[in-house]
Amino acid sequence: MQVTATVHVAVLDPLPMFRRGVAASLSDLGHLVEEPANAEAWVRERPGGVVLLTVRSAEDLDRLTALCCLRPRPLVVALPSADDASLGARAMRAGARSVVAREATASALQRTVSATLAGQAVMPADVADLLVAGRAGRAPSGPAPAAEQIHWLRRLSDGWTVTRLAVEAGYSERAMYRLLRALYQQIGVRTRLEAVMEAYDKGWFEN
């Protein structure tokens, strides 16, 4: 399989053996595969790069969301377990461009990365089914946020953590999470990335 240009690829997975296997597979396509210690710094230094992120927990989803809030937004391919379609769907809602099982073959991973670079969104059928069902049940958007709430969304779009935002806003971290959940419900979204994208779409950051 040939590619038209060399692309930087970051592999974020806890197992060195898995990272080496991915590196060997994608190096065959001519890509430069790296294992950055600081993913956010890597994304800023490698605009146009691809991030392969293993997703097993809520913490991994938070990491994915933080990466997808960066500008320019990176191409993230989430790697959940093959038997957890719900985690794959949550990864897509959090901002992943594509989803492929962590247990996928080397050729399947190569095809997914190539298709993602070509502008396609790739995912297993069961993940797509969950996304369609979830979108159909999405709550309608409520009233526009207050100025303080828009400020929170702007901070999140800049890559701030909830902990840092809580310190600035003068709330405990737990209270900040509650306030953000209420805000997401108010504007009819489920995740931080969806909230930030809603703010961009509605022009709330332009005022």
Structural summary, described in words:
With 207 residues, the protein is α/β, with parallel strands linked by helices. It folds into 2 domains: 8-135, Response regulator (Rossmann fold); 147-206, Orthogonal Bundle (Arc Repressor Mutant, subunit A), CATH 1.10.10. 53% of the residues lie in helices and 10% in strands. The chain has helices at residues 16-27, 39-45, 58-68, 85-94, 106-117, 125-136, 147-157, 162-169, 173-187, 192-202, and strands at residues 8-12, 32-34, 50-54, 75-79, 98-99. The chain has a 5-stranded parallel sheet with strand order 2-1-3-4-5, sandwiched between helices. The longest helix is centred in the last third of the chain and has 15 residues, at 173-187. The mean pLDDT is 87.
Order of helices and strands: EHEHEHEHEHHHHHH
CATH architecture field of the largest domain: 3-Layer(aba) Sandwich
Quaternary class: single chain
- Tally of extended strands? 5
The average pLDDT value, as a whole number, equals 87
Helix content: 40-55%
Secondary structure tally, helices: 10
Number of domains: 2
- Which structural category fits the helices and strands? alpha/beta
CATH superfamily of the largest domain, by name, is Response regulator
What is the spatial order of strands in the main beta sheet? 2-1-3-4-5
- Taking the alpha carbons of the first and last residues, their distance comes to 48 Å
The portion of residues forming beta strands comes to 5-15%
